[in-house]
Amino acid sequence: MTSTAVDFEAIKAKQRAGWETGDYPRVGNTLQIIAELLVEAADVRANQTVLDVACGQGNAAMAAARRFAEATGVDYAANLLEQGRERAAAEHLPVTFLEGDAEQLPVPDVAFDLVLSTVGVMFAPDHQKAADELVRVTKPGGKIALASWTPTGMIGDMFRTVGKYAPPPAGVKPATLWGTEEHLAELFGDRVEWVGLTKRDYVFRYRSPEHFSEWFREFYGPITKLAGSLSEQDLATFAADLADVPRKYNYAEDGTLAGRAEYLEAVGIKR
């Protein structure tokens, strides 16, 4: 199926409804270390203009603002933006939050020294359009820095498990392709020189694999929405399947969960 046959606007409307279900920041806030590592890898400087795309509750924008950059976050989920504003206010960080689509960013051309996304822009259904937007808003010589789950890691497995109960829309490429060097090369071509491509592990730490499953079903919007649509029997099976995912990656031997989840940290310079 070609991209022209895919109704990306309808897909994004469903995605937005998913992210506005549950309370994603209860999950997203635990990923803050990914953003801190990403801004360090990108060598963000004070006074630089920084854009956090698909920012959610603002992890990367806040990480940049802590380093005295002029940070802006963009997301299409109003509830996540509101929590981002509350977090920034609580930490006395001057972050600007804008409601907008990663595939049509509400900012001017070549406006930012650094454009970031931590496990955010990867979920835009039209990968090429999202990549084109990242390039459009970055200054020549500026940087694009991305942290994306890989298809071979724990979260890739989780998405495949979810897909058994809610198949992804036809014609939409897997989000985890952003976690591969080959897909980045395809999306950005010679417009970006990738100067850092590093696979890292984020460790999901929960009381148990079952606690992970419960937490994601209650708070991770798209999974919360899916769980609410299942019969009692299917929900029980789904809950068990979801717990089995991190169990395979768990290195803790004390009954708790410490599950390694691979992601690709990519830093590039716009030519």
TrEMBL record:
* Annotated Methyltransferase type domain residues: 51-145
Question: Known InterPro entries for this protein?
Answer: Methyltransf_11 (IPR013216), SAM-dependent_MTases_sf (IPR029063)
A single Gene Ontology molecular function, please? Answer: methyltransferase activity
**What's in the keyword line of the UniProt record?**
Methyltransferase, Transferase
The domain of life for this entry's organism is Bacteria
Q: Which GO terms describe its biological process?
A: methylation
**Which PANTHER family does its entry note?**
2-METHOXY-6-POLYPRENYL-1,4-BENZOQUINOL METHYLASE, MITOCHONDRIAL (PTHR43591:SF24), METHYLTRANSFERASE (PTHR43591)
Q: What is this protein called?
A: Class I SAM-dependent methyltransferase
Q: Which organism is it from?
A: Kribbella sancticallisti
Lineage, top ranks? Bacteria, Bacillati, Actinomycetota, Actinomycetes, Propionibacteriales
